[in-house]
Amino acid sequence: MSKRFNVWLLILAAIMASRFIGMALFPFADTTEPRYAEIARLMAETGDWITPWFEPGVPFWGKPPLSFWAQAAAIKVFGVSEFSLRFPSWLATLAMVWLVWRLARQLWSVQVAQWSSLVFATMALTYISAGAVMTDAFLALGTTLTLASFCLVMMGEGGRWRWLFFIGLVIGLLSKGPLALVLVGIPIVLWLLLSWREAVNNLRRLPWLRGTLMTAVLVCPWYILAELKTPGFLDYFIIGEHIRRFLDPGWAGDLYGSAHDQPKGMIWMFWLWASFPWGIVALLSLALAWFRGKRHGIVSSTLLSPGVSFLLVSALAPMLFFTLAGNTLWTYILPSLPFTAILIGRWVSECKPFWLSSLRGGLVAFVPVLLTGFVCVAVLGWTPLKTEKELVTYYQQIREADDSPLIYLDDLPFSARFYSGGTALEVTRNGLDNFPHVGAFEHLYVAVPKKWSGEKVADLLPSARKVMENKRYQLLVIDGFRRDQQSVSETKGVRSNDI
């Protein structure tokens, strides 16, 4: 093993290992991570591996279960923690880093492969999603495996890659659904149009009939069982999530949140954020080369090289598909980044611009250092986070056997659900008046918005005292709750009689 290879491997290992800091120390902040983490926790707790549950009694029809399976399995192995729930995404990202390395090495050289993997691992969205409880890393793994396998088979590779093409489809269909077929279909069709003569004979190398049958056997049983167990799943997931959400920017049918209404074409701006800092640097360099009169070289190297043209259409596919959609998030860019990284990695490895040669080491370190620093600052409490971990932990430490569950007035954050193990309650103001009928408690613990004034708190809970607060909420406690509630009820009765 060469010295250069050793250095590259050590740097890559340090980058991937640095993500462990955030995975272990950074709390789940509302809303995405704790929402998916709670779904996985419920799956592990109930043992229901068919239907993910949004909360007890409410099925989660928004996503297939592959990511939840992985996260629930991690809970079974490592216990409930931020690290265990984030670890499956880290493994999925590590697999994508290897696929990037393997494809770039096949297309060009080991040096290009090394830089491509470094570029991919240090893009902003890659680094963040590697340690986040989301479904996107599994979708991107599926699409990357399918497209990388397709490219390798078209270049003459055989054996396992012929079947990994279909395994990638299985991963995509079980992590995000039919969207995976679209994201791999667009680049394959576009590339065939560009390179029809070279590719038409190579298509026979893939076992289309047996591979499709294998995909159906591995995917369809879960979809059938999910519909049988909770009727209505297929209509909501296939029609609602994949058609109505795409066509209607303000889709009101979302059962689990709100639509992410964005201006059409915003997906291209998301690409700049997701690929930061490499995408911006590459575009600036490309624009500079274009204005220097190298247009012909850029166009010919892209369109005349089958490998480069396939990478380009694979990198552009998510943006092309979501350009006219208003319901978008920046995480939708992740399937584009492995192929973007190989294109940039080839350019970086050649180091034709002198300024890039001196900057590329700093670009590799930029995102890992920046985000690791942010994690450290947040853990030290210098940056308030939208998480209920501290408040829930405080409540768990001081509560006694005869005390009430933790109550959030009107709105229960997902992070409170997760960190309380599903015991925190959401109660309305009217429900709070009737809460004594549920049981008798020595102390009542209620979290109300931090912005509430003392007068507003006193009007609702006259004898409440504040014991702590975080960025969004203040935790109130009523001592001798039964006596206090009785006096409040009597007072309200007197006032109503007076009226």
TrEMBL record:
Stretches assigned to the ArnT-like N-terminal domain: 30-237
TM helices/strands, residue ranges: 7-29, 87-104, 116-141, 161-194, 206-225, 270-291, 303-323, 329-349, 361-382
GO biological process entries: lipopolysaccharide biosynthetic process; protein O-linked glycosylation; response to iron(III) ion
Keywords (A to Z) from UniProt: Cell membrane, Glycosyltransferase, Membrane, Transferase, Transmembrane, Transmembrane helix
UniProt keyword Glycosyltransferase, yes or no: yes
InterPro entries for this protein: ArnT-like_N, LipidA_mod_glycosyltrf_83
Protein name: Glycosyltransferase
Species per Swiss-Prot/TrEMBL record: Marinobacter psychrophilus
